Amino acid sequence: MKIVADRNIPYIADAVRPLGEIILLPGDAISAETVKDADIILTRTRTRCNASLLGRSTCSFIGTATIGTDHIDLDYCRERGITVANAPGCNAPAVAQYVLSAIRAFLPPEEALAGKRLGIIGVGNVGTILNRWALGLGMTTILNDPPRQENGDTTYIYSTLEEIAAESDFISIHTPYSKTGPHSTRHLLNSEFLSAVSRRPLIINAARGPVADTQALKTALSRNLISGVAIDCWENEPDIDLELLSEAFVATPHIAGYSNEGKIRATRMVLDALASHLQDHFGLDITAETLSAGLPAIGPIPETITEQQLGYDINADHIARNLPSPDAAVSRYFESLRNNYSLRPEPHI
């Protein structure tokens, strides 16, 4: 069979090469022509999997080594009988590490995290780990997740966005991106929300670019409503807002989830789903363990961590620090920094 894969998915080539021909390409080079006779597409967020890409393709499986599926037209795939698999939660510890490292870097060295108030919007895979680690560091957390609350979840005591705005020293958002429905998250952090904050919080977006309104963030900074922005996910990536880049406390090229362990988890989850698909769709006698046999082993996710275990100098990843010159084409280097990022280790036991 023929497999077209994003070349930046770690360990993928060796894992699937025994299945047949593998074509490795940059994500934005995967095209309708390259996938027209592909059986399997393995990708990341830079490949738009829609009718334009898939209209002439024989593909029966798309595996994305990411938590999100915003780049995949799920309805179209369903109509075409194309199985889609993603990797939910694969990078959750790395994103939690990113958020707490941003907070640690923002505070003076002599000021502890203990006693600070962290508002967490979205308590899914990332928010759950972030909440647990923050509580272990002595922080107070304020949680908001209307879908979970409406579904009767009693794991946490939930607060409103208004309470998050009023009570938080730091606000970090971890929702999916949705443009419609009762819980649309597009521009959830907007001018109305940012005008209601009381404690001049640091705003952290390591979720999806459009969940925060770029113009509203810039206005809140100029009006001194918030004390800073740590931004990893941007509207209109890679054509990011240069004014927000210059004003951000820390600005990174969508690498919050880029840990070595997270990438291994993502590849393993995609391979597990692929093995099931090959059994069900092609009747092949192949197991997830067989495909994943060559992947490095990783340890369990810690229940709690110390500040010392964070082990991540977030300022080293600041985009402005890594540009070859102040007038460099930022969009080009955004992608380069992201694709050539040296995967960092997560906090470990």
Poorly predicted ranges: none
Estimate percent helicity.
25-40%
Going across the major beta sheet, what is the strand order? 7-6-8-9-10-11
Approximate strand percentage:
5-15%
CA radius of gyration: 21 Å
**How many H/I helices?**
16
Q: Tell me the series of helices and strands, N- to C-terminal.
A: EHEHEHEHEHEHEHHEHEHEHEHHHHH
Largest sheet: 6 strands, parallel
The assigned structural class equals alpha/beta
SS elements, strand count: 11
The residue-averaged pLDDT reads: 95
Shape: globular
Distance between the termini: 41 Å
What does this structure look like?
The strands form two sheets. The protein has a six-stranded parallel sheet with strand order 7-6-8-9-10-11, sandwiched between helices. Strands 2-1-3-4-5 form a five-stranded parallel sheet, with helices on both faces. The chain is built from 16 helices and eleven strands. The two termini are 41 Å apart. The model has no long low-confidence stretch (mean pLDDT 95). It is an alpha/beta fold. α5 packs across α6. Helix content is 36%, strand content 13%. α10 links the parallel β9 (202-205) and β10 (228-231).
